[in-house]
Amino acid sequence: MDSTDHDASTAVLSVTGIGKTYAEPVLSDIALTLRAGEVLALTGENGAGKSTLSKIIGGLVMPTAGAMRLAGVPYAPASRTDAEALGVRMVMQELNLLPTLSIAENLFLNRLPKRGGVPLGWIDRRRLRDDARGAMAQVGLEAIDPDTLVGELGMGHQQMVEIARNLIGDCRVLILDEPTAMLTAREVDLLFEQIDRLKARGVALVYISHRLEELARVAERVAVLRDGKLVHVDVMMNLTSDQIVTLMVGRELGERIDLGERRIGAPLLKVDGLGRAGVVRDVSFDVRAGELFGISGLIGAGRTELMRLIYGADAKERGTVSLAAAPGAPPAPVRIASPADAVQHGIALITEDRKGEGLLLPQPVAANISLGNISGVARHGIVDARRENALANRQIDTLRIRTSGPAQPVGELSGGNQQKVVIGRWLARDCKVLLFDEPTRGIDVGAKFDIYGLMGALAREGRALVVVSSDLRELMLICDRIGVMSAGRMTGIFERDAWSQDALLAAAFAGYRSRDALLAAHSAPAVGEPS
Q: Membrane spanning segments where (predicted)?
């Protein structure tokens, strides 16, 4: 037990000697307490054990060793439902929502109000909508119709619906796992306001995040995990961000990153006049061999949509994508009508939604890595397990993927290691153009630097890399040029020696200013007409 804790019997929740072993230990002898009305920040590198510990508390995973107590009473939930019935709720990165049901139905799925209180009667739709509006107002979603299908919402709004669902009813302990990863700044502020209300009600919160500035803003104490062990617990104000990072990774990280000496050559990828239905508007740029080309912009600017058009995941309405057939050759237009066409031409997309679109979570690491290179591991149309495992082991070693081996289900890996598996798949195929969409979202500091180093190695091999990121500092750290998207257009391309944070931000707003001015001009009365 850490020295800052009171006696465990007075705590809302206490865990003692908690351990978990799969093929190898992932948690060892964890002892922590949660107090009423406080936020405990839980941080550490990907693979440190944060999610496993949270899932044990939330009833999703059974511990191998140790015990827990809730309000002084033994606590051993057999399922998430058991934990929720006792007031222990968890908002996970993998949202627990049904996209084909409405917001209201998702919020009250297990307690739909019935007319006249008859258990098997018709659903009281009016009461359901009223109850949903009250729950949605708590997280700032009062402007959205509760009958809207969840599948029609953006990821940020879906996250807020998931948070609202977990706040309904008696909530004694709330675990938030990377809750702001997909939220806008306004939504983050609303979340923090809700956290303050929960603290005032005496709810104990566990807040998992790699965004250290958020931890300082929201938490009273911080617990740091490293390699499945609890290495430090302290009052938040006693630690600086640099000290927390050092505790997380076991070493100090410098302010700069050396991506090695690279020779930037002729353009490998050229995009000319690409557009689709207003979300991407006549975008043109090129990316050279050995170059890291960043794409910045506000949420909704069209960055992900642009990547999907290049990759053939969405159909373009205009424009061309061109590729160089050989080093130094001028790019020539290619037909990309599907992701299969893109892969055939040597273009890979590392998607923003690695769990939903990039991985087969129940399948082994080996199967996920070989997925992009079946012809290389198959004999006579049948996958050769020996070849598949050999390929997986090469990528595990090259990318330093923390796993018990090729047979481990990829869903058991941390977010950072899952991301490495996705990258490893495309490295095995030797794609010459790699599109990275938010490659470090939800990944800790140490794993980010591993990804940066990997990007540098890929660029040194002469590949062209396009990196979409919401973190402007990240792009300024690693990129050679940065293109800025605004309202579907690319409003500027900046060289490393010519950019500034102010100039990049101004370009991010430029498209919206010109669009608003155009709308105002169209709506203004003509000369001579009454105003």
A: none
Question: Residue 34: left (phi > 0), alpha (psi -120 to 50), or beta?
Answer: beta
- What Å distances lie between residue 348 and 187, 357, 441, 462, 464, CA to CA? 32, 13, 18, 15, 11
Q: How far apart are CA 140 and CA 517, in angstroms?
A: 29
176 contacts: CB under 8 Å, gap ≥ 6? 91, 163, 205, 206, 207, 208
Cα 285 to Cα 429: distance, rounded to the nearest angstrom: 25
Beta bridge partners of 493: 483
* Helix segments in 400-444, DSSP class H: 415-429
Q: Angle CA(287)–CA(296)–CA(187) in degrees, nearest 5?
A: 155
**What is the secondary structure of 58-77 as a DSSP string?**
TTSS--SEEEEEETTEE---
Would you tell me how many other CB atoms lie within 10 Å of the CB of residue 151? 12
Q: Yes or no: say if 279 and 302 are a contact pair by the CB < 8 Å rule.
A: yes
| Token code pair at residue 321 | 């994508």
Amino acid letter, residue 67: A
Q: Which residues pair with 16 in a beta bridge?
A: 67
Q: Which amino acid is at 39?
A: V
Cα gap 344→330, rounded to integer Å: 19
Among candidates 242, 230, 249, which has minimal Cα distance to 447?
249
Q: Which amino acid is at 439?
A: P
Please give, one letter per residue, the 3-state secondary structure of 335-374: CCCCHHHHHHCCEEEECCCHHHHHCCCCCEHHHHHHCCCH
User: Exposed/middle/buried for 112, CB within 10 Å: 0-12, 13-18, 19+?
Assistant: middle
Nearest alpha-carbon partner for 462 in 308, 270, 285, 287 = 287
For residue 302, give every residue at least 6 positions away whose Cβ sits within 8 Å of its Cβ, in sequence order, or none: 279, 280, 281, 283, 485, 487, 488, 489
Among the listed residues 263, 274, 379, the one whose alpha carbon sits nearest the alpha carbon of residue 317? 274
Token pair for 14? 């206490």
Q: How far is CA 241 from the centre of its chain?
A: 21
Q: Which of 43, 71, 68, 48 is nearest to 58 (CA)?
A: 68
Q: Which residue has the tokens 């991985």?
A: 359
Q: How do the pLDDT tens digits run along the chain, 531 residues long? A: 344 444 444 689 999 999 998 767 889 999 999 999 999 999 887 668 888 899 999 999 999 999 999 999 999 999 998 999 999 999 887 777 888 999 999 998 877 877 765 555 688 888 999 999 988 887 778 889 999 999 888 777 888 888 888 888 788 999 998 888 767 777 788 788 888 888 888 899 999 987 778 888 999 999 999 888 999 999 999 998 878 878 877 655 554 567 878 889 999 999 999 999 878 999 999 999 999 999 998 767 899 999 999 999 999 999 999 999 988 899 999 999 999 999 999 999 988 777 777 788 889 999 998 887 787 788 877 888 899 999 999 989 888 888 989 999 998 888 778 888 988 888 777 789 999 998 887 676 777 888 888 899 899 999 999 999 887 878 988 999 999 999 899 999 999 988 987 788 888 878 766 554 444 444 444 333 333
